[in-house]
Amino acid sequence: MDTVSITKSAAGLQKRGENLRALVQRLTEDLAMRELLRQLAETPRLEENSTTNGSSRTNPEKLVGHICGGSLISASWILTAKHCFDSQLDPSLTQDPSRLTVRVGEYNLHKPEEFQVDHEVEKIFIYPSTENSYDNQYGVLDDIALLKLKRPVTFNKNVQPACLPYPGEQFKAGTVCTVAGWGATEEGLSLLSFLGSQKKLSGTKLSPILRHINVPLISLDDCRDIFAPLTLWNPKFQIHTSFICAGNSESMDACQYDSGGPMMCKSGVDGQYIVVGIISFGIKCASGYPGIYTRVTSFLDWIHDTTSL
């Protein structure tokens, strides 16, 4: 599968945008995981039309940089997080999707790759907000979006679409899944980490290469118990059934600028790695609290209705 990079552009801006990816801290000799890592090197990334040292970008005055991760789910569609396009932070993004570029086939953000290709975005599809979408105050409920590309991606040995789960497909607590991306390798100064925060925090260091971590799934009941102090402090914060909780390590976690990237688990049905979750938010990074991911199976009907896949 391909994990994408999403960037945005704005004339005159030289500030590096957010690199919304995940962190790798260990490698594995498992053959299936090695194959997954090979596929991850195809992961596309989302950018605002910007210049990099790749041949397809030529105007350095438009560079803003990497803002989110995403998953290529077909030749023309990217699955990512809704809050990457928060209109309160940057209203022009949803109004002008041409500012966005999706890059596929990338491994190192600082070096051009043989299979690296940039694609313009035709339209941004935000999951429809409901009356209670923001009841948890932080606006992370229904944190899912789709991007329609102007032209289809050409698949090759390094660029392939990700698999979606079957309706109702479930994974038991304790299942070890993989989170991948180019995100922060050191935490910035934030308590509640919107992992796709549009504002770069002081002290944050981003990874130039695609990395991964393995995280265990946590049951919603256990997750609610862990977050109980936060819920008592703010009753609007709730762990919803459309969330997935994973990871409780103080050494490995997704971190700032990782939003929209995939959580992948090995299917018990056909053995394929599938996109089970979308990186959404967390409490600091590797703080002992689980990370929160959008549960893809909760939105399969919307994905299929929007994309006709």
Automatic annotation (TrEMBL):
Domain Peptidase S1: 51-308
Coiled coil: none
A biological process term (GO) from this entry: proteolysis
Alphabetical keyword list: Disulfide bond, Glycoprotein, Secreted, Signal
SUPFAM superfamilies hit by this protein: Trypsin-like serine proteases (SSF50494)
GO function term, MF aspect, one: serine-type endopeptidase activity
Localization per Swiss-Prot or TrEMBL: Secreted
One Pfam family from the record: Trypsin
Superkingdom, natural source: Eukaryota
SMART domains assigned: Tryp_SPc
GO cellular component, one term: extracellular region
Protein name: Peptidase S1 domain-containing protein
Lineage: Eukaryota, Metazoa, Spiralia, Lophotrochozoa, Platyhelminthes
